Amino acid sequence: RVAITAGDWDDDVYDEVDAREIFDLLRGIKDPEHPHSLEELNVVQEELITCSHPDAYIGVNFTPTIPHCSMATLIGLSLRVKLLRSVSHRFKVDVKVTPGSHQSEEAINKQLGDKERVAAALENPQLLNMVNQCIYGT
């Protein structure tokens, strides 16, 4: 982690979006099965977030709590929705399972990386409600 400086708290100082800022957006998202945040469960970690300004890119890897977690896609969708609602649309947002951390990693990453699949999922009122419950208050 990078040390926090006085300039980090100064709203008049311009700074680029960085991994710490993205982590702060995501850390409070609730796990759909547990009464804990994704930070508390080590599902999201600052070290697994990348930001590239020349490319306007934000990448987030998340680590499900178990290799066969049935909620991994919902967690990834919650992360993606939170970012899409919170950062400028100029950023390309990638949310992926941390390599080697889930038995269905490839399928989950394919779903989360497909804009049409994400849009279709969010048209399902029950699924959208679950996502909103996870990100409520963050």
Q: Could you please describe the fold and organization of this structure?
A:
The protein is of the alpha+beta class and 138 residues long. It contains five helices and three strands, in the order αββαβααα. Strands 1-2-3 form a three-stranded mixed beta sheet. β1 and β2 form a beta hairpin. α2 packs across α5. The mean pLDDT is 92.
What are the salient characteristics of this protein?
37% helix, three-stranded mixed sheet, 3 strands, 138 residues, globular, alpha+beta
Q: How do the SSEs run, as a string of H and E? A: HEEHEHHH
Radius of gyration: 15 Å
Mean pLDDT: 92
End-to-end separation: 21 Å
What overall form do the CA principal axes indicate?
globular
Number of strands: 3
List the uncertain runs. none
Which strand-content bin applies to the residues? 5-15%
Note the total helix count.
Answer: 5
How much helix, percentage-wise, in residues? Answer: 25-40%
Instruction: Summarize the biggest pleated sheet.
Output: 3 strands, mixed
Q: Main sheet: which strands, in order across? A: 1-2-3
Structural class: alpha+beta
